[in-house]
């Protein structure tokens, strides 16, 4: 008696990415109430600079429009329901997006469509540019939520652009062409390419070469390009962030048909750490896309009071400049702290310069270099170590053994504890591996020495154990 959509199993909720969250919710860590609980390292949330926002609010008590001094504002906000959004907020958001990009490009507020978060923005763009059964090409590894956001209600398909650790998971011409050909073999009509820049889960920004490659590819194939730039304000070290808009500008393409094929998704969830406010946006140079997306936005509007408050915050240029600078500084410190702790345990990471996470190489800990081995390790880390991290297979990584580990959603003390737990696990795993290796060595020696006196075998046993201890 229910619809096919209600009963289908295409939401992606059974992914290990979401299953890890379910396990965390059963036993969440708390330093006092549940010190042995699971630590959430699968949540890409920025809590490192929340005190800056709280300080601004304390210094600007009338900013919400709900105080006695702003009664008229309260009535206006309570009655406002235009799905085009508050002009003051759209202007402030456009300026903030330019500021993040060092004002190398500007954004026309009339080309902005407000949505209830980046999730809504990406889905809305899918509805605008793709029909059910059409495909989008996405570089791997990619954000696990895209399987839900882009496909579940729209009926669109995803074809992976397989990227490799051999070149730091960079996008190449051959990978693009291979994905396009693979889609054609599946009789899928390719409508575009979607990238996250900076990348989630890699924590790297796209290079100028990659961006120019993408523009050339979508131009030659007559495709759309969606650039999800939700992490654009989190780039904390070189190379810096290059927006797709900057590439269009430098190539004198802003007033061409190619520019109409390019669309940007943005949100304040990561840069300002406000996921609960549900602030997302689409920026497009195509008037038809802007018009259609604006109509669709009526199904997921941002409250007028939220828009009003954020227009006050973003219009304070002194605050936004200080916030972006300080936030990047704190992200780099926390990123370095995580990677130094991992390095001490013998675990390396992809060299990253952005985001709220690191792409961690745990191939050395796999019992076998397979995705079965990856899931075995992931379950041990979740259930035995008490850390929820995201396995690479949930991000459609083509190589087993990579994991996304988030670092900005917790206190410094919690991160220290998480690394202590992981270090203990790695030490015990190494000891177990060495012990098994030693047992095999002893058994082999035993078979070879059955004709020897027992005291010879005992001496061999002692020497082997002594040698292993000194190696440690």
UniProtKB/TrEMBL annotation:
It catalyses: S-adenosyl-L-methionine = 1-aminocyclopropane-1-carboxylate + S-methyl-5'-thioadenosine + H(+). It comes from Helianthus annuus. Belongs to the class-I pyridoxal-phosphate-dependent aminotransferase family. InterPro entries: Aminotransferase_I/II_large (IPR004839), Ethylene_sulfur-biosynth (IPR050478), NHTrfase_class1_PyrdxlP-BS (IPR004838), PyrdxlP-dep_Trfase (IPR015424), PyrdxlP-dep_Trfase_major (IPR015421), PyrdxlP-dep_Trfase_small (IPR015422). Residues 39-422 form the Aminotransferase class I/classII large domain. The keyword Transferase does not apply. GO terms for biological process: amino acid metabolic process; ethylene biosynthetic process; fruit ripening. Keywords: Ethylene biosynthesis, Fruit ripening, Lyase, Pyridoxal phosphate, S-adenosyl-L-methionine. Its EC number is 4.4.1.14. This is 1-aminocyclopropane-1-carboxylate synthase. The gene is 1A12.
């Amino acid at each position: 008696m229910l619809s096919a959509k209600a009963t289908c199993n295409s939401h992606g909720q059974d992914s290990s990415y979401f299953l890890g969250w379910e396990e965390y919710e059963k036993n969440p860590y708390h330093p006092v109430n549940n010190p042995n609980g699971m630590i959430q390292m699968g949540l890409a949330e920025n809590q490192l600079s929340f005190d800056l926002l709280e300080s601004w609010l304390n210094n600007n008590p009338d900013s919400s429009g709900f105080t006695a001094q702003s009664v008229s504002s309260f009535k206006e906000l309570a009655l406002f329901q235009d799905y085009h959004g508050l002009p003051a907020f759209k202007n402030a958001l456009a300026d903030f997006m330019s500021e993040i990009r060092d004002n190398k490009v500007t954004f026309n507020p009339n080309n902005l469509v407000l949505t209830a978060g980046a999730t809504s923005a990406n889905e809305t763009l899918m509805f605008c540019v793709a029909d059910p059964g059409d495909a989008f090409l996405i570089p791997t590894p990619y954000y696990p939520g895209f399987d839900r956001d882009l496909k579940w209600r729209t009926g669109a398909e995803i074809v992976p652009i397989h990227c490799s650790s051999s070149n730091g998971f960079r996008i190449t011409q051959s990978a693009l062409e291979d994905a396009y050909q693979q889609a054609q073999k599946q009789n899928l009509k390719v409508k575009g390419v979607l990238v996250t820049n900076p990348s989630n889960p890699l924590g790297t920004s796209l290079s100028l070469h990659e961006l120019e490659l993408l523009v050339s590819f979508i131009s030659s194939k007559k495709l759309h390009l969606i650039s999800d730039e939700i992490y654009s304000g989190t780039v904390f070290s070189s190379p810096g962030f290059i927006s797709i808009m900057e590439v269009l500008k430098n190539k004198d393409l802003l007033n061409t048909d190619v520019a109409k094929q390019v669309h940007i998704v943005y949100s304040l969830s990561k840069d300002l750490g406000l996921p609960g406010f549900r602030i997302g946006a689409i920026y497009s140079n195509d008037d038809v896309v802007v018009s259609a997306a604006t109509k669709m936005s009526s199904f997921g509007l941002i409250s007028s009071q939220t828009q009003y408050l954020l227009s006050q915050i973003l219009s304070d240029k002194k605050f936004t400049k200080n916030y972006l600078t300080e936030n990047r500084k704190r992200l780099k410190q926390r990123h370095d702290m995580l990677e130094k702790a991992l390095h001490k345990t013998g675990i390396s990471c992809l060299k990253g310069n952005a985001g709220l996470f690191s792409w961690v190489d745990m191939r050395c800990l796999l019992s076998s270099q397979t995705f079965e081995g990856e899931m075995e390790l992931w379950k041990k880390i979740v259930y035995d170590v008490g850390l929820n991290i995201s396995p690479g297979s949930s991000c459609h990584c083509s190589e087993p053994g990579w994991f996304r580990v988030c670092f900005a959603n917790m206190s410094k003390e919690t991160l220290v504890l998480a690394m202590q737990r992981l270090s203990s696990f790695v030490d015990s795993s190494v000891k177990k591996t060495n012990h098994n290796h030693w047992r095999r060595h002893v058994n082999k020696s035993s078979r070879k020495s059955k004709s020897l006196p027992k005291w010879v075998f005992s001496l061999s046993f002692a020497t082997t154990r002594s040698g292993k201890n000194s190696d440690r």
